[in-house]
Amino acid sequence: MGRTQVVLLYIVVAVLLLFLISRSPNKTPNHRSRRLKVRSTFNFNPAASLDNKHREHIPFDPLIADIERRREDKEWEKHYFQTSHKEIVDAPAAEAQPEWEDFMNAEDYLNDDDRFNVTNRLVVLFPKIDIDPVDGYVTVHELTEWNLNQAQKEVMHRTLRDMEVHDKNHDGFISFAEYEPPSWVRNSNSDNNSFGYDMGWWKEEHFNATDADGDGLLNKTEFNDFLHPADSNNPRLLKWLCKEEVRERDTDRDGKLNFKEFFHGLFDLVRNYDIEEHNSSQISDNMMEGSAKILFGQLDKDGDGYLSEEELLQIIGKLHPSEKYYAKQQADYIISQADTDKDGRLSLTEMIESPYVFYSAIFNEEEEYEYHDEFR
Ligand SMILES: *[C@@H]1O[C@H](CO)[C@@H](O)[C@H](O)[C@H]1NC(C)=O
Ligand SMILES: *[C@@H]1O[C@H](CO)[C@@H](O)[C@H](O)[C@H]1NC(C)=O
Ligand SMILES: *[C@@H]1O[C@H](CO)[C@@H](O)[C@H](O)[C@H]1NC(C)=O
Ligand SMILES: *[C@@H]1O[C@H](CO)[C@@H](O)[C@H](O)[C@H]1NC(C)=O
Ligand SMILES: *[C@@H]1O[C@H](CO)[C@@H](O)[C@H](O)[C@H]1NC(C)=O
After folding, report:
1. 274-315: pLDDT as tens digits
2. What is the dihedral of CA 226, 49, 81, 109, to 10 degrees?
3. Structure pTM?
4. Largest CB tally within 10 Å, which of 105, 137, 341, 344?
5. Helix count (H) and strand count (E) of the chain?
6. Which residues line ligand 5 (CB under 6 A)?
7. Atom 2 of ligand 4, residue of closest alpha carbon
8. CA dihedral 333, 335, 337, 340 (to 10 degrees)
9. Cβ atoms of residues 179 and 202 within 8 Å
10. Where is the EF-hand domain (predicted)?
11. Pairwise CA distance, residues 151 & 130, whole Å
């Protein structure tokens, strides 16, 4: 054998060895390569959470949701004291260290296979999701309902936390006098031009539309609607939201939307929504204006060439996608990833075979490099 051939042989052997080592069965790479990371979902600027592009995934597992919630509450408390009660900030600062340790412990816990076994979690959760009907399969509908339920709990938790701050007389209700617009609205701009406030959010009309029983007070449900109008079932509040939508787009200030005002603003939102739903991509500019005209015609029920607030009600769910929309989107994603036999639903076995799809909300890809460290 020549020198080159010997060198080549060595290289082949080395590559084969590496390949074998990396596949060695005692390493269960699918599990060890991943690290679950507790997210900090608390957002100091709620304007971003009203912006659909910055949405956080809903945790699939209530146990994760609980850990994240507790962490978020702590951050929120700290932030709240720093901004609203500057005078007592110095005192709790000493507690910063233990908080961090709690967080580290939670993360260690999640990544300890013996204590937090994702297979066992899925086995426990499966019968809670497979309920409509109980048939040994999780359908898109069941998973959507599950996600929606998780999301609603999350949203209500934040609402109640907010309520504590605003409910100054602690009677469990918010009056308009008690309600103060969020600090980032008040502080950011003295000319009232910051997000939302220039429209009508957090003003009395918004409050009155939310107050379904008209008693001048918002209870928990109503206050939650106040903060998340698009998720509400209150027709008056949805109409108010349409009115705000018209106000924002109505450049000639005639109180309704002509085709131009619709095309340069709303249509893109509806179209993006429909693309995600039906995957109808690749439309040229001309076709786009054409399909905008068709949609405009369909929405303009009285055919006066304008869209009124009432007529916008038909698409308000697309202009402000609701929790239900995101819950369905996340369910579709999970099923597309885990449904190995492509029957459109998940068996427990399929779920257990792709456990990290369910934990993708907290799965941290950057940490994947840790795996490679193992066979150095
Ligand atoms: C998780 O639990 C299952 C069933 O109880 C067990 O077979 C599996 O080995 C456990 N996984 C780990 C990584 O401990
Ligand atoms: C901002 O809005 C508040 C409440 O509506 C009002 O009292 C104040 O005058 C406004 N400030 C400016 C600069 O418009
Ligand atoms: C809101 O309702 C209260 C009480 O019914 C009323 O006095 C007030 O004028 C209303 N405000 C607006 C802006 O509609
Ligand atoms: C709050 O009031 C509404 C009526 O406006 C009612 O439907 C709802 O059940 C109440 N919620 C709670 C938690 O009492
Ligand atoms: C959906 O979009 C993807 C990527 O744009 C494309 O490959 C696929 O064929 C589309 N599916 C349908 C049903 O249109």
Report:
1. 776 565 556 677 788 898 999 999 999 999 999 999 999 999
2. 120
3. 0.76
4. 137
5. 20, 2
6. 279, 281
7. 219
8. -160
9. yes
10. 204-233, 287-322, 326-361
11. 18
